[in-house]
Amino acid sequence: MIPLNLSEIAAIVRGTVAGDAAVTVAAPAVLDGRRAEPGGLFVAFAGASADGHAYAEQAGRAGAVAVLGSRATALPTVVVQDAQAALQALAGHVVARLRGGRGAGGDGNGDGSIGERSLTVAALTGSQGKTSTKDLLAAVLSSRAPTIATIGSQNNELGVPLTMLRADASTRFLVLEMGARHVGQIAELTDLVAPDISVVLNVGQAHISKFGSREAIAQAKGELVQGLAPGGTAVLNADDPRVAAMRSLTDGRVLTFGRAPSADVRVLDLTQDPRGRPTFTLRTADASARVALPVVGAHLALNAAAAAAAGLAADIPLHAAAQALTTASLTKGRMELRDLPNGATLLDDSYNANPDSTRAALDALAAIHAERRIAVLGEMLELGDTSETEHRGIGEYAAARADVVVAIGDAARAIADGAGAGAGARTEAQARAMVVTVADNDAAVDWLRAHVAAGDVVLVKASRGGRIDEVASALG
Length: 476
Fold this sequence. Notes:
By secondary structure, the protein is α/β, with parallel strands linked by helices. Helix content is 34%, strand content 20%. It contains 17 helices and 22 strands. It has helices at 6-13, 56-62, 83-98, 130-142, 159-164, 185-192, 208-211, 214-226, 241-244, 300-313, 318-325, 355-367, 387-399, 413-421, 428-434, 441-451, 469-475; strands spanning 4-5, 16-18, 24-25, 29-30, 41-43, 66-69, 77-79, 120-125, 147-149, 173-177, 197-200, 233-237, 253-258, 265-272, 278-283, 288-292, 336-339, 345-348, 373-377, 404-408, 435-438, 457-461. The strands form four sheets. It has a nine-stranded mixed β-sheet, with helices on both faces. Strands 17-18-22-19-20-21 form a six-stranded mixed β-sheet, with helices on both faces. Strands 2-7-6-5-4 form a five-stranded mixed β-sheet, with helices on both faces. β15 and β16 form a beta hairpin. α4 packs across α10 and α4 (130-142) crosses α11. It starts with a strand and ends with a helix.
């Protein structure tokens, strides 16, 4: 956050100041007062079940010096009618100034201008793999210059401006993960900040019940390409026809990644070590580099290629990107491999799930050398009319890659049915033994504690709403 006093913030967001207008905010904005930093801004929302304004004093004890909200609080407050719109306006202004302009209400030549800047904004979206690719891209860019990136999956109308407000005068790269649950949402985000680099990973089935069709999902993801800043670069998946077709949405530069021979950054010669970590070659028309990722999953090779392609768009050579990728780490709960006290191994991919990401996680499980492979699977949400079919299909897929499939809850019963049907040449007794149904997360933990032994590897995967991360946490 660039330093701004409350009088300046009020002018930017068209609010009024209750309290000392000279107070200066110099640290990031937060929605959770407990996470406020010294000199920071607490953004208060009055919701149906809780009123954030009541936590202003708590935020102050944590370090916040001011509040942005819809009424006065115990701290100096910028009072606005719409706190979300004000947060977005403030974020847009700050990033515009860091890019060399004044943002809202200025031309870049008045007092307070940051001056000549070289802030590059990279944004990315896709039906799956957004957060992992964001982590990989942040590793590539931060190897060259100070980089701010989305924390976790804060990729919506609140998370994006919060990330933008973490940028300051030292920031050279700003990496923004952008998600959507309806057509037009990414366009609204690119209205806040037009990316210099737009990365589109794939068009899958995540949130299909919200969109209605894959065509609508493709339209929504394409908004990131349409929202490019003048002179920007689109980075597109050559292996996904719906993404490759987005080339027509921009007159600017396009770089592609994938396994396809036509890809500008191509993945070749992929192998995996006994713990499922991929090694592969990234090749362009004039360079190649070998990459050994320190994280699990062959599917992450494509995400790494996307990150390297975005790095090329930011003038980072392929060899430098490849070196940075060897030290990358992923957000907690995404393909996280942990050794358990009893000698077993946990593959924690519990943060979220959809059919494509679950198949990728099951492939990763199958690649790990183990005595037994146990897939603990819960419900995948927002699949609409295809839910029963997709869950059953995942069960069949799991049966070919795991020795035991544990399905949690009634909503995941179709996974168990599919696993039973996919048991193949196993005897009836073997098929029954490989499929376990449990009522809830607690029952899953009890079963795992009683049956998992040294040498086993356990995958935990479900949609966020199922809170299957509780199972991963309980195991260790």
